[in-house]
Amino acid sequence: MMDIAFKKKAEEFVSCLPYKQTPYRNRNWGHPWHSLCSYHGKLKPAIAHWLISEFTSEGDVVLDPLCGVGTIPFEACLQGRVGIGNDLSELAYVVTKAKVEKPNYSGVEDVICQLDDYIKNNKGSKSITEYENFGFNGKLPQYFEHETYKEILCARDFFLNRFSSISPEEAMAFSALLHVLHGNRPYALSRHSHPLTPYAPTGEFEYKSVIEKVVQKVNASYAKLEQSQITRGRAVYGDYKDLAAKNIKADFIICSPPFADSIRFYMQNWMRLWLCGWEPEDYKKADEKFIDKLQEKNFDLYYSFFEMCADVLNDNGKVILHLGKTKTTDMGAELSKRAGSWFDLVYLAGEDVRTIEKHGIKDKGVTVEHQYLFLQKKMRWD
């Protein structure tokens, strides 16, 4: 039987879109850790905030199986829910872990001290010719002054040696490094580029200390922070198909999959993914791995997605998806068709975004509507 109250809330949410009101409409609204690391394609924190506050209750387990840098699970933790974020991207996993698993500040300081020692002991063995032929908007070594580049190579080794069992504190220090890796302001280690996509660098080659920049970012992140008010969540690394086997259970799934005809996130984030361990050959195989490219053929991969959702959701569990409709692809309608074996369609509606102001990198404007798809898990009569 359909949850009438859930349907009514869905209709009211789409009719008023509370995240468009002041102060939530402000570009920089939200907890400062939402900006822990720049990331192209990140969901607006205000949307996550209102979806969680309107549809879930304190203590609920909220899962995002395609979490990106953890906007939804972190917002859940901020509101007294248990946020769980899963992603197949190493970059997304690290940043999500730093946000939701409550890293201790003194522990982060200890990690930075260990990183400092590692750089001092290993910097002399590094060469500026490493990865000299690799890069997309420019060759990697050309983004950095030589000594800075050697320190980055050392820091990459340091964190990759710990990745398989990375702690929240290590993830926080690593996230700080990922953020300062490139940009167009003094905090960045690179020459003048862009904080989201590393465009070809310009300007002088100036030495910048990795440790100094990481410390500055960490200190800024912890300034005026009250962690006791944040619920501890969990970050999971891997394919969403494996979540049930990992004994993940949830009350709600709230997720914003890559939009129809979206950019390839791994290309926009290529340098940060390199820092997370990607090698040049990994970029050639990425189209076979990530949803944003796979769904260009068709949306049949979502059959396995919805099967997973049904497996991990508790009885009467709900799914809310934030989707992108283009002039040629109605993503909400396509996913609704593929959810039917496991879920009842409660409501589907959207927001016209063709006139919304764009910030930062030029937007090609293929998305014409942000859609909200509300689903309820079918009752099983075993």
Question: In words, what does this structure look like?
Answer:
Mean pLDDT is 94; it is low at 359-364. Helix content is 37%, strand content 14%. Helix 5 crosses helix 7 (168-180). The two termini are 16 Å apart. Strand 1 (61-64), helix 3 (71-78) and strand 2 form a beta-alpha-beta unit. It is built from 14 helices and 7 strands. The radius of gyration is 21 Å and the shape is globular. With 382 residues, it is α/β, with parallel strands linked by helices. The chain has helices at residues 4-16, 45-55, 71-78, 90-100, 105-122, 146-160, 168-180, 210-222, 265-268, 270-275, 280-285, 291-294, 302-312, 331-339, and strands at residues 61-64, 82-87, 234-237, 250-255, 313-326, 343-352, 367-377. The longest helix has 18 residues, at 105-122. A 7-stranded mixed β-sheet has the order 3-2-1-4-5-7-6, with helices on both faces. The chain folds into 2 domains: 4-101 and 232-265 and 287-377, Rossmann fold, CATH 3.40.50; 105-222, no CATH class.
CATH architectural category of the largest domain: 3-Layer(aba) Sandwich
The CATH class label of the largest domain is: Alpha Beta
Query: What is the helix fraction of residues, given as a range?
Result: 25-40%
**What is the number of domains?**
2
Characteristics:
globular; Rossmann fold; 382 residues; 2 domains; alpha/beta
Short description:
By secondary structure, this protein is an alpha/beta fold.
